[in-house]
Structure formats: C-alpha cells, structure tokens
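Re: beginner question about structure tokens

> Can someone show what the tokenized structure looks like for a real chain? I only ever see the sequence side.

Sure, here's an example I had lying around. Input first:
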Amino acid sequence: MAKKSKKQQQQSGGTPATVALTAAGVAYTTHSYDHDPAHPSYGEEAAEAMGVSPDRVFKTLVADVDGKLTVAVVPVAGQLDLKALAAAVGGKRAVMADPASAERTTGYVRGGISPLGQRRTLPTVLDASASAHPTICVSAGRRGLEVELSPDDLAKLTNATLAPIGRA
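And the corresponding structure tokens:
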C-alpha cells in the first residue's frame, strides 16, 4: 500500500497535528465530540464531552514574550501564569498574543490551536503538571477534536520546555 502524502492525509480527515504524530510514529488516540459554539470554554467543553478530568486536558495558548510568539500548554482547569511563562523562556514580560496573529502563525483557529503541526515552529512551554499523568489530551487542530498522548512524546515533538506555568 502506498504511503499517503501529508496533503492526502489531511484531505482524508487528518489535521496537521495528527499528520505530524503519524509521521513521527507516536502512539496517540483521537477523541471527537460535537462542539457547541455557545459553550463558554473550549477546554472545559472538551473535558466534559470526553469525560476526562480537566487536569488531564490541556489548552494551547499563544503569548507574546518580549515581542516573540510563544506557545504555552496548560491544564484547562487553571490559568496561564504569564510571569512564569516569560521566566521559563528567559523573557521579561509576557502578554496574550493577538488572536488573529496566533491563528495566522499557527495555521489553526482559536479554540482549535494545537501545539503540534503548527505552520511555524514556535518556542513551546508545557506546564510541569503534565508529567504527573501517563497521558494528556490537547487539541488535534480543530474544535471538537482532541488527541491523547504521553506528555513525554508531546514535549519531544514540540521541543518543549517543562516549567510550572499554570496556576489554579
């Protein structure tokens, strides 16, 4: 059987995130659910829909650290500590990135930004709490689709720094 190109994989329902995982030979499971546009939180909606504890479901946020876009991956049960994120990448000040800039740079829409398969590789920081779980869930690249994988594999594929960047 012929191997599919990235474009063929995406056309057959894959996303850049799942294509990257498949290409890397990483074990993962996808979880899909019907996204409700009226739900106030993409991450909490994912945790509820999948029946997974919110401390195992991680949201992908894009911040601007001293003028450089940076990806932060934190549990949906908490918030991003911008000061801790800046410190983790050796910066002084972090603010949330402009949503349009985040979408344009990553190639994903808000609520569906995955830390994997982004259009442009950005520095990534994964909250240290991820290490407490054998697997975590992150967006697979579109609203209503999550990917479950080991935090070690996620860190390796994104070249992420592990640091305590989340807060309750």
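Each token stands for a local structural state, so reading them left to right follows the chain. Helices lie at 6-11, 16-24, 42-50, 82-88, 99-106, 151-158.
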